[in-house]
UniProtKB/TrEMBL annotation:
Pfam families assigned: DBR1 (PF05011), Metallophos (PF00149)
Name the record gives this protein: DBR1 enzyme
Location of this chain's protein in the cell: Nucleus
GO terms under cellular component: nucleus
Keywords, alphabetical: Hydrolase, Iron, Manganese, Metal-binding, mRNA processing, Nucleus, Zinc
Sample GO molecular function, one term: RNA lariat debranching enzyme activity
Sequence similarity: Belongs to the lariat debranching enzyme family.
Basic and acidic residues bias (residue ranges): 387-396, 486-511
Biased composition (Polar residues): 416-428
Residues spanning the signal sequence: none
Keyword Nucleus: yes
Keyword Manganese: yes
Region Disordered, annotated ranges: 387-539
């Protein structure tokens, strides 16, 4: 089965699908499935634009609305996750996933599906420690804070995914797993993106939550986007026992939608079940996990930790038994096909009748209602509306105190991280900038990509094989200086060879003892870039 993988398409669906059709004509290559790793921008109308966290001058309608209205149909089954530049109000309608248009499926906050026997998982959004332990409390109309926090990864989604026991073939995240750059051509990466150097050397680039999932799930493939640069890596995972077979993950980070000659390098052949149908299917284990963790759903701003084996929780293991999976199959009469029940829930953009003052509203999507009723799950949006009506939304006055608590978490808690260094990765001249520290700043002063040229090509072959050492494991003190033992290849061979424990520790540049690196220095440097290039036309 041929699977095409795209990075941030930023709403340019026509361009993306035309590229695939061009591939078919010129190279006789037709993918069976298209995966998109976030910043999809499923914008239906002007109200959706107002819910997208980008400066006003980058709020363009693009072409998704044509697929939403039925004017066009995606020529290939498309599955995507959310990023940090999305119509959050639209995606929020489908917290457990669903169709945003015919043949275009959103995986939800986190999700696992199957296609032709291939198991595909993903997690939407980007990591920010100050929102990580909160519930999904946001709803439109958003304010300056919630328009951003709406796309921040939450610990409950990571917790659910960590209950998976069966192998995952493909996994997607928007931001990169932290430390993945140590398993690829790091020198070439820093040559193309020199402003990543501080974060790479201090091992703070990327998401610690995604890194935690990478270590747990060990998928065959992991795809990411966000940083607008192509990067390949190969991670050989350590085994937990002598009886466990060694596993490895092929990682590929995607650039923005590229010309056809580059897109061709982003099509992979994946082993599949030749007897499986051509329909997208639910994953029985994932459905069983959703049912098992339903009591953990939180729609408040209050911060809380997921259950763990620390003497404070009566139950901490929410992985499911074969019996629970069998029950899901029986409920569905062994028919896992996801129903094609796409429904219009908002007016579609009409170029002849623009409505610039259209306001977003909080909508409950019939797809979610049907899904929750079928499996006995909590409709998150319905719960949010109930909380609003009852005036029971809690935690608003505690937000400042909770953010301070985020920086003092225990190193023994795997779902807490004491600094928000992943935010540094947002300071990328190739990415739309938002000042995460500000409150009501003028978003129109930000800019993007100072250079429209694509970065130089480099091999996407997965030749840099490294074993993940214990010292690379994510912990809440991962922002301080550490002695990370780096493993290097010997000559042109793929034989893995460990360096001695006296390897020079990675040094933080401009950081303080609390792990707060020189964020403002990076910000000033990049703001200078934005100011110089503010009038440039960007993709």
């Amino acid at each position: 089965m041929k699977v095409a993988v795209a990075g941030c398409c930023h709403g340019a669906l026509d361009k993306m699908y035309e590229t695939l059709e061009l591939l078919q004509r010129r190279h006789n290559v037709r993918p069976d499935l298209l995966l998109c790793c976030g910043d999809f921008q499923a914008v239906r109308n002007e109200a959706d634009l107002r819910c997208m966290a980008v400066p006003a001058k980058y709020r363009h309608m693009q072409t998704f609305y044509r697929y939403y209205s039925g004017e066009k149909k995606a020529p290939v089954l498309t599955v995507f996750i959310g990023g940090n530049h999305e119509a959050s109000n639209h995606l929020q309608e489908l917290p457990y996933g669903g169709w945003v248009a015919p043949n275009i499926y959103y995986l939800g906050y986190a999700g696992v599906v199957r296609f032709r026997g291939v198991r595909i998982g993903g997690i939407s959004g980007i990591f920010k420690s100050h929102d990580y332990r909160k519930g999904h409390f946001e709803c439109p109309p958003y304010n300056q804070q919630t328009i951003r926090s709406a796309y921040h990864v939450r610990n409950i989604e990571v917790f659910k995914l960590k209950q998976l026991k069966r192998p995952i073939d493909i996994f997607m995240s928007h931001d990169w797993p932290r430390s993945i750059y140590h398993y690829g051509n790091k020198k070439q990466l820093l040559k193309m993106k020199s402003f990543f150097r501080q974060e790479v050397e201090s091992n703070t680039l990327g998401s610690p939550a995604a890194s935690e999932l990478l270590q747990h799930l060990k998928p065959t493939y992991w795809f990411s986007a966000h940083l607008h640069v192509k990067f390949a890596a190969f991670m050989q995972h350590e085994t937990n026992s002598k009886d466990e077979l060694p596993k490895a993950t092929k990682f590929l980070a995607l650039d923005k939608c590229l010309p056809h000659r580059d897109f061709l390098q982003q099509i992979i052949d994946v082993e599949h079940d030749p007897n499986a149908g051509d329909s997208l299917e639910y994953d029985a284990e994932w459905i069983a996990i959703l049912k098992a963790t339903n009591s953990l759903v939180n729609v408040t701003q209050s911060s809380w930790n997921m259950p763990e084996k620390n003497g404070l929780h009566a139950k901490w293991d929410y992985s499911v038994t074969e019996e629970a999976i069998k029950e899901v199959l029986e409920e569905l009469n062994n028919d896992l096909k996801i129903p094609c029940n796409f429904t219009l829930t908002a007016a579609c953009y009409d170029p002849s009748k623009p409505q610039k003052n259209m306001e977003p509203v909080h909508t409950i999507n019939p797809q979610t209602t049907e899904f929750c009723a079928q499996f006995g799950l909590t409709d998150i949006n319905d719960r949010i509306q109930q909380a609003k009506e009852e005036g029971s939304g809690r935690g608003e006055c505690e937000e400042e105190e909770e953010e301070e608590m985020d920086s003092t978490g225990s190193a023994e808690e795997p779902s807490e991280y004491n600094t928000d260094n992943s935010g540094l990765s947002s300071f990328n001249p190739d990415e739309i900038m938002l000042d995460e520290e500000g409150g009501d700043e003028d978003l129109s002063t930000c800019s993007v990509d100072p250079s429209p040229d694509h970065p130089p090509e480099f091999s996407t072959s997965f030749s840099d094989i490294r074993v993940m050492p214990d010292s690379m494991a994510v912990s809440s003190d991962d922002a301080t200086d550490s002695n990370n033992e780096e493993l290097e290849k010997s000559g042109g061979s793929k034989q893995v060879e460990e360096k001695s424990s006296t390897e020079r520790s990675l040094k933080r540049i401009g950081g303080d003892e609390n792990g707060n690196s020189g964020v403002k220095k990076i910000k000033r440097r990049n703001q200078a870039i934005y100011a110089a290039e503010d009038e440039d036309k960007t993709d």
